[in-house]
Design a protein that fits this description.
Layout: E1 6-14, H1 21-24, H2 44-47, E2 72-75, H3 87-95, E3 99-102, H4 107-114, E4 119-122, H5 125-137, E5 141-145, E6 150-153, E7 156-159, H6 164-172, H7 176-181, H8 184-193
Parallel strand pairs: 1-2, 2-3, 3-4
Antiparallel strand pairs: 1-5, 5-6, 6-7
């Protein structure tokens, strides 16, 4: 995966709590064994007025011209709850989002985001409300600095916490498999030290 250091982009507000993985990517689109092809089905039941996904819902924020180029999603608490499907962050990333900001995330969803280089940022409810209101009124560009752990716009700077291991993985562009392979020599030596009878 790509290394993440910083990102500058427009935010799209999705002012709703407890958005689960079935709303992010409905189950009928999980038939592919590849990591691609999910972005077009992101929020399918909200984005489209028909089952085929050919008629856009003009009331849904992501379909509005003002948010068409957004690469940062800001939303409510407990984002990504429900099942553990990895397809949810895949769909968000393939659609074009680089950063998801919420007041809380489901644990498995959060980890799945880290594992593909999609940065989940936790801000306070008050900070979320301020940014959401600003984004609803006008185009809002945010600067994300992972090293400094800041989100900034204009004269406002918001700090976020992130586990040091997760931060390292994002900055180095390594997922759980890469991290394991970094210890391949030690793993091989351990395997060779195991007696045959075991």
């Amino acid at each position: 995966m790509d290394k993440f250091s910083s990102h500058k982009g427009q935010i799209a507000p999705l002012d709703q709590a407890n958005i689960d993985t079935d709303q992010i990517i409905p189950k009928q689109f999980l038939k592919s064994t590849e990591r691609v092809g999910f972005g077009k089905h992101l929020f399918h039941d909200w984005r489209y007025l028909d089952d085929q996904g050919t008629e856009n819902n003009p009331e849904f924020n992501l379909n509005r011209p003002a948010y068409k180029t957004a690469s940062i999603l800001i939303t409510g608490k407990n984002f990504g709850c429900g099942s553990s499907r990895e397809h949810a962050p895949w769909a968000l990333q393939e659609y074009g989002f680089k950063v998801i900001i919420a007041s809380s995330f489901a644990d498995i969803f959060y980890g799945n985001c880290i594992n593909i280089g999609l940065l989940p940022i936790i801000l306070t409810t008050t900070e979320i409300e301020h940014l959401t209101t600003a984004a609803q009124q006008d185009e809002l560009i945010l600067n994300i600095d992972l090293a400094a752990q800041t989100v900034s716009t204009g004269g406002n700077v918001y700090h976020f916490e992130i586990n040091s291991f997760h931060k390292h993985c994002l900055q180095q562009g390594v997922d759980s498999i890469d991290w394991t392979l970094a210890s391949e020599t030690e793993i091989t030596a351990y395997e060779q030290s195991i007696p045959n009878w075991r």
